[in-house]
Amino acid sequence: MYNEKIDDVIKSVKADVSSTISQKIDVLVGICESQIERGSSDFSVAMIGKLFKKQGGVSSQSIQNKTGAKYKAVISAFEKYHGMQLAAIHNAPKGNL
Q1: Residue 31 and residue 61: Cα distance in Å, rounded?
Q2: Per-residue confidence at 2, pLDDT binned at 50, 70, 90?
Q3: Half-sphere exposure of 77 toward its Cβ, with a 13 Å CA cutoff?
Q4: Which of 71, 14, 89, 78 minimizes the C-alpha distance to 43?
Q5: Largest distance between two CA atoms of the chain
Q6: For residue 62, what pLDDT band results from cuts at 50, 70 and 90?
Q7: 8-28 core/surface letters (b: 16 or more CB in 10 A; e: else)
Q8: Cα–Cα distance measured from residue 44 to residue 75, given in angstroms and rounded to the nearest whole number
Q9: What DSSP character marks residue 54?
Q10: Which of 21, 31, 54, 79 could be 43's S-S partner, Cβ–Cβ 3.0 to 4.6 Å?
Q11: 22 in Cβ contact with 49 (< 8 Å)
């Protein structure tokens, strides 16, 4: 569903974490994938944090804190790389009708 650069960020973030945090990152990835499936480009910490908290993750405030850096890195990767894919689609030349 997502591209290789996002996958690289996820692997990097999960490299040195506990199994609990790894599971939470998996939940976070699922939330971000759901945003893509819904056609949403809203990967703000506020939006993702709200959805994440509902599914047993940490709050938006916790993501913003130093200890939430790994979660924020995942969200930022989806925002950046999915946003780039959307821009490429929207800026692709259209055929003459």
Answers
A1: 17
A2: low
A3: 23
A4: 78
A5: 55
A6: very high
A7: ebbeebbeeeeeebeebbeeb
A8: 8
A9: H
A10: 79
A11: no
What gap in Å lies between CA 55 and CA 46, rounded to an integer?
A: 15
In the numeric block, which tokens belong to residue 44? 């703000």
Look at residue 66 and give its three-state secondary structure: helix
Q: Kindly indicate the confidence band of residue 73, based on its pLDDT and cuts at 50, 70 and 90.
A: very high
CA dihedral 35, 38, 42, 46 (to 10 degrees): -60
Query: pLDDT digits over 25-40, tens only?
Result: 999 999 999 998 998 8
Distance CA 4, CA 24 (A): 20
Q: Which of 74, 71, 76 shows the shortest CA–CA distance to 59?
A: 71
Q: Could you tell me if 28 and 71 are in contact, meaning their C-beta atoms sit under 8 angstroms apart?
A: yes
Tokens of 13: 């973030």
Amino acid found at 75 = I
How far apart CA 2 and CA 12 sit, in angstroms, is 16
